[in-house]
Design a protein that fits this description.
Helix content of chain B: under 10%
Structural class of chain B: mainly beta
Number of strands of chain B: 11
Structural class of chain A: mainly beta
Order of helices and strands of chain A: EEEEEEEEEEEE
Distance between the termini of chain A: 41 Å
Order of helices and strands of chain B: EEEEEEEEEEE
Radius of gyration of chain A: 13 Å
Radius of gyration of chain B: 14 Å
Largest sheet of chain A: 6 strands, mixed
Number of helices of chain B: 0
Distance between the termini of chain B: 36 Å
Oligomer: heterodimer
């Protein structure tokens, strides 16, 4: 079974700082990749997704992620965070032609004003 | 378009009680699933369904039952609640990946369950 590893459990930043969250997965075949965000007290919302094509994908709210197949990684980035980016971020992977979405443990991001 | 609707939002149960968490989607999605979210463990798959009449176990199925009699509904039943089942539960739905349709998962608002 595939696994998803998120490197940071809790990240604390100041506003305008840059953010990078690491995500690695263990499945060797073709995968679809996602980053979800969960704001306090809310459900999960999709930030961005990668299915195929350009490995640099752009999502909502200024987030982007880069798929590096050789490293089995899908790291999330934002050049300048805002206080409203305080949330928990989840990386998720689904093997192509499978049904089950696997999540990482999540990274809590706290942005201080 | 309501998306994925879960009820109730909050529930307190006594050990040994049973209950059903409801989940409904109005997007005609084939694939529906239930996750539980616990601190430091991300979301873990409990059960999933790839269509009406078809269900299967996920990573942590013990103590839970599901059924899928219609495309729209996917209830989760706790047979005899235990304190270890205290968690936040999310229902999700998406198209079938095998059709190459959008595999983004849409999530419900969650049910916060406490078992005392």
């Amino acid at each position: 079974a595939q696994s998803v590893s998120q490197h940071n459990h809790h990240v604390i930043l100041s506003e305008a700082a840059s953010l990078e969250l690491g995500c690695n997965y263990s499945y060797g075949g073709t995968v679809n990749l996602f980053w979800y965000v969960q704001y306090p007290g809310q459900h999960l919302q999709l930030l961005l997704k990668y299915f195929s094509g350009d490995p640099l994908v752009k999502g909502i709210k200024g987030f982007e992620a880069e798929f590096i197949k050789s490293k089995f990684s899908f790291n999330l980035r934002k050049p300048s965070v805002q206080w409203s980016d305080t949330a928990e971020y989840f990386c998720a992977v689904i093997p192509f032609n499978d049904y089950k979405l696997s999540f990482g443990a999540g990274t809590t991001v706290t942005v201080r004003a | 378009n309501a998306g994925v609707t879960q009820t109730p939002k909050f529930q307190v149960l006594k050990t040994g009680q049973s209950m059903t968490l409801q989940c409904a989607q109005d997007m005609n999605h084939e694939y529906m699933s239930w996750y539980r979210q616990d601190p430091g463990m991300g979301l873990r798959l409990i059960h999933y369904s790839v269509g009406a009449g078809i269900t299967d176990q996920g990573e942590v199925p013990n103590g839970y039952n599901v059924s899928r009699s219609t495309t729209e509904d996917f209830p989760l039943r706790l047979l005899s609640a235990a304190p270890s089942q205290t968690s936040v539960y999310f229902c999700a739905s998406s198209y079938s990946p095998s059709t190459r349709a959008n595999t983004e998962a849409f999530f419900g608002q969650g049910t916060r369950l406490t078992v005392v």
